[in-house]
Amino acid sequence: MLEKELLEALKIVKVASKLTSKIQSEITSNEILTKKDASPVTISDLASQYLILNHLNSQFPNDAFIAEEDTSEETIKFLEDVLNLVNQYSEKDTTIEHLAEIINLGASKGAVNGINKRHWVLDPIDGTKGFIRGDQFAICLSLLNEKGQVILGVLGCPNLSLNKYYDSELHGKHRFNYAQLDSECGTDGYIFYSKAEEDFVSFASDNKIDLSKLITLEGFEKTHSSHDLQDLIKQKFNINNALHLDSQVKYCLLALNLGNLYLRLPTSLEFREKIWDHAAGNSLLKSLNYNHTDSLDDLDVDFYTGGRFFLTKGVIASNLSKELHAQVVAYSKDLILKKFEGKK
């Protein structure tokens, strides 16, 4: 099942990865805008979204789309720059009108009580600030079924060098030789993919974790999660090692056991997580039977009821035992409620 969907998703994410990788080293301030929510958007964000949605819409015309970007805040000059970029990677030239029409296909709101048709979910560049800094970012595409369940995920990580995150003292002998993998992959990074539970594999033999060598995976930007609370969790569980990096690349490192505990605790109880920030990573974790829960309750993350959002107060993911993961979540809940008590 889903062979065609996976094939087409991989094909177009690879194209978008090449585009974004090339532009990352060349981008100028004129090719970056700041949106009303203070987040940046680049011509590469919109170009990536256009290429992916245009391809998927042609292959699966009955599906709907939820994607991060739209054209409501962009100037004509900005869109012209996007157009020039996408025409270099398209089989035939398009127009600004068609460009905007396809980008805005991602405006579906799903449904309040469930999604009644398949939805492709896209973050065309997850970690735009990292992209601008020349650091980590990811192209994150996933597919939800009619019930809002993640059934497929593809993550393009054009700037990822795995050997950078491998530490022989912490990881010991590992199933992969990352230096060799990096040299084989060159400068093209990696593409991770799974068909969620259909591809379930157990890595139990690699998952015997020495508590003194646990590694947390956390965001680089301090505005995206409560780093102060995450530090308290590390103190509680005697965790001395942390990686801070942008985007869903963190889920990829977790899937490879290069990190053990992904912490994204909320900055307020009003904040709602956007599904494009987690759905593709969720597919990887489901395929490995790893933990992916709310940071307040030990409940699996649910993309069913929130439309463009999902109803969670932060996220905790891990390749720990179910019991240890539950202990982390219980302590996280205590910290969150104490911090935000009376601030709802």
UniProtKB/TrEMBL annotation:
The keyword Magnesium applies. Its EC number is 3.1.3.7. The keyword Magnesium applies. Mg(2+) binds at E68, D123, I125, D126, D277. GO terms for biological process: inositol phosphate metabolic process; sulfate assimilation. PROSITE patterns: IMP_1 (PS00629). It catalyses: adenosine 3',5'-bisphosphate + H2O = AMP + phosphate; adenosine 2',5'-bisphosphate + H2O = AMP + phosphate; 3'-phosphoadenylyl sulfate + H2O = adenosine 5'-phosphosulfate + phosphate. GO terms for molecular function: 3'(2'),5'-bisphosphate nucleotidase activity; metal ion binding. Keywords: Hydrolase, Magnesium, Metal-binding. Coiled coil: none annotated. Its cofactor is Mg(2+). It holds the Pfam family Inositol_P. PANTHER family: 3'(2'),5'-BISPHOSPHATE NUCLEOTIDASE, PHOSPHATASE. Belongs to the inositol monophosphatase superfamily. Converts adenosine 3'-phosphate 5'-phosphosulfate (PAPS) to adenosine 5'-phosphosulfate (APS) and 3'(2')-phosphoadenosine 5'-phosphate (PAP) to AMP. This is 3'(2'),5'-bisphosphate nucleotidase.
